[in-house]
Design goal:
Length: 545
């Protein structure tokens, strides 16, 4: 247990900003909020930034009353209904109220099982001073936010009582809830165990884009303007669908905590083709990633997305955290040529990277060391309706949804990337139902109302500078680039050597370094002797972790 000295500074900063923000809020006049939309009886949709009338709640951690669906409470209400089983597979789990609800069910005799991503299977309160000092800036901010959540009496010290009440992973472990992560197969972890789903009594499925964290649901504790990363969850009542999710869970679970290494994560799992179900008035297709590059692309999760996009006749609206799958951009270009109106919002941190398909849609390209991506294809007839949403400070666009012809929704945990397709454990849902789609349409309208569209001036200047510096920009050969992203925590020596600037000795040092502590970001590679910022720039867009 450790509380970093910076915490007191963050606490003072929080109080000052909170006062300013509250004053500004009182001065603002809000436009009339829209009426709530009807919900489908079997497939209900919720957004943590829902702006409709009546969608208000008080975030109990910061005591901020704000518009939005209280995703944590919705999940807890479903957990409280459990009679027999609850299975949870979520990348990161930090919300204490959900942990407490699961603990009560475990104590009442309900079988509870939890699967996490290995990077996040460690209580924040257990980090030592030395470990905190090794955190990068992003992780240190997350650590301080977690400490603020646990420190109930705000004395900058964590007591055993506070830890037992507010550290979610400690709550689960104290309740003897079995937990595994994606190292249970004997590896150092799959690409990412990126699922976000709960299955209750083989009937109720909760899934979507939200991790079980304050930032993923309510907002950052030390950032009073934050309202939570833009996320959605769906609550679906259907036994056949729940059975498909349970099968996916069981593949990963194996024999659970007995450590017989029969869990299956990543590409160790067998191919699971897309399954189509009729749920009330909805046609629901579900597919779980990853799929091998040896299979036809059309059979993959990205292939399922592509097949839905091909059906568009009028509109396609996208709200995506990451968009880097070239084949999906190519399909959209074809639909655009057939007079389908396309709009896209991408998170600002990814929208204008050299591998972003948002650039293709805008008809421009950025090179990496005077070389474009393999098969890079800026649109011949670009569109202007591509850009980034304006979000509260500290928040990101974490959705992974597309809407086709205002009646079909593509959503889930699956980012539109090669890594999600071929490396990570992910969920893709396609829901053909105009009632469900109406909720996503309204969320897209909310995000697009104040969006900044087009190529930013800074990117235009960067493109001009590249053209002057690189008069003959080449395009990388696809034959020389591995299919999908290379996971620096699991890659073989040969796979690491396929990356630019990495030879046999450097590959060996990467393997040795990750055995001591897995990499948590691209920049974290600089822990390896011989890797500096210039090589990190070369690896951007080619690796995952």
């Amino acid at each position: 247990m450790v509380v970093h000295r910076l915490f007191s500074t963050f606490r003072l900063f929080f109080l000052i900003i909170s006062l300013i923000f509250t004053a500004c809020q009182k001065e603002q006049t809000s436009s009339p909020r829209p009426q709530p939309l009807p919900q489908d009886p079997f497939v209900k949709v919720y957004f943590n930034n829902n702006q409709t009338q009546g969608a208000d709640y008080t975030d109990i951690y910061r005591e901020i009353t704000r518009p939005g669906d209280d995703l944590e409470t919705i999940i807890i209400e479903e957990i409280n209904s459990a009679k027999n089983t609850i299975d949870v597979a979520v990348q990161e789990f930090r919300l204490p109220q959900i942990a407490q609800a699961l603990a009560k069910k475990q104590q009442a005799g309900v079988q509870v099982r939890v699967i996490l991503e290995n990077t996040y299977n460690r209580p924040w309160s257990s980090l030592t001073t030395a470990e905190v000092s090794q955190l990068d800036a992003r992780e240190k901010t997350r650590y301080l936010d977690a400490i603020a959540l646990i420190d109930l009496n705000k004395d900058n010290q964590l007591s055993p009582a506070e830890i037992n009440e507010r550290d979610a992973l400690i709550i689960l472990k104290n309740a003897n809830i079995p937990i595994i992560d994606d190292t249970a197969d004997g590896s150092q972890g799959s690409g990412l165990m990126h699922h976000k789903f709960v299955v209750i009594d083989n009937f109720t499925v909760i899934t979507g884009s939200a991790n079980f964290t304050t930032s993923g649901v309510h907002g950052d504790l030390l950032s009073p303007a934050s309202r939570g990363n833009a996320n959605n969850i769906l609550v679906i009542k259907d036994t056949p669908l729940a059975s498909l999710f349970t099968k996916e869970f069981d593949l990963m679970w194996g024999d659970g905590v007995d450590r017989n290494l029969d869990s299956k994560f990543g590409l160790q799992k067998p191919f699971r083709p897309a399954q189509k179900l009729i749920i009330g008035d909805s046609i629901v297709s579900v597919q779980f990633s990853p799929t091998s590059t040896s299979l036809p692309w059309s059979d993959t999760s990205n292939g399922l997305i592509g097949n839905m996009l091909k059906n568009a006749t009028q509109t396609v609206d996208l709200a995506l955290f990451v968009f880097s799958e070239q084949k999906l951009a190519d399909i959209l270009e074809t639909r655009h040529q057939q007079n389908v109106e396309i709009e896209a919002l991408i998170d600002p941190s990814f929208a204008f990277r050299n591998y972003s398909e948002g650039l293709d849609m805008l008809g421009v390209a950025l090179s990496n060391k005077c070389q474009y991506e393999a098969n890079n294809r800026p649109w011949q007839t670009p569109i202007a309706a591509v850009g980034v949403p304006r979000l509260p400070e500290g928040d990101v666009l974490h959705h992974k949804f597309g809407i086709v012809d205002e009646k079909t929704v593509i959503t889930g945990s699956h980012n539109w990337s090669a890594a999600a397709n071929h490396t990570n454990d992910e969920t893709v849902l396609v829901i053909e139902n105009s009632t469900v789609a109406a909720h996503f349409n309204r969320e897209f309208e909310r995000l697009s109302t104040k969006a900044v569209l087009g190529v930013p001036i800074a990117i235009q200047e960067k493109i001009t500078a590249q053209e002057q510096k690189c008069p003959q920009i080449t395009t990388a050969s696809e034959e020389n680039i591995p299919q999908g992203l290379i996971n620096i925590n699991t890659a073989t020596q040969k796979e690491l050597e396929s990356l630019p600037g990495i030879g046999p000795k450097l590959a060996q040092r990467i393997i040795q370094t990750r055995q001591e502590q897995p990499f948590t970001s691209l920049e974290d590679l600089q822990r390896v002797s011989g890797i500096g910022s210039s090589l990190v720039d070369k690896l951007e867009g080619r690796v995952t972790w």
